[in-house]
Amino acid sequence: FKMDTTPESYLDLFPLDAIVYLTPDSENGKYFTCFRQGRTRAKDKVYVLGGLVDESIHKQLTLRRAREQSLQTARLPIREYMVKAPNARNYHSETLAINQVFDVLSTYYETRSWPAALRAGVSSGKGYVLRDTEEQ
């Protein structure tokens, strides 16, 4: 993947309607599932990985930031393809580190398979398993 870095804001570099802010707090998981049906062209969009350099989770912070900037939001389709797995701590989290989100997106780009992409980026420690492996 080719990447450029710049001190400029994404708001100054791209049209607002092209920006999709990725946040686990978005209700829009269907946005990504429509890639498979060809209704949305990923290359027409700019994806901002909503992340924080912090060890704690601040619920709704990235969603609020996106809304303040009048941006479309989306989340990875974890709820659509995965289920909560029983675990000793009863812990389940859809919040991923930026590198995990990048792994999911790059695997999806290569395979066009959400199950494969989610398997690559969502660790078992998050408390989710793919629906087809629920009983394994």
From TrEMBL:
Keyword Methyltransferase in annotation: yes
Catalytic EC class: transferase
Signal sequence segment: none
Listed GO MF terms: tRNA (guanosine(9)-N1)-methyltransferase activity; tRNA binding
Enzyme Commission designation: 2.1.1.221
Reaction it catalyzes: guanosine(9) in tRNA + S-adenosyl-L-methionine = N(1)-methylguanosine(9) in tRNA + S-adenosyl-L-homocysteine + H(+)
Gene Ontology biological-process annotations: tRNA N1-guanine methylation
GO cellular component: nucleoplasm
Keywords associated with the record: Methyltransferase, S-adenosyl-L-methionine, Transferase
InterPro entries reported in the protein's UniProt record: MT_TRM10-typ (IPR028564), MT_TRM10-typ_sf (IPR038459), tRNA_m1G_MeTrfase_euk (IPR007356)
Boundaries of every SAM-dependent MTase TRM10-type domain copy: 1-129
Record-given protein name: tRNA (guanine(9)-N(1))-methyltransferase
Record organism: Daphoenositta chrysoptera (varied sittella)
Record lineage: Eukaryota, Metazoa, Chordata, Craniata, Vertebrata
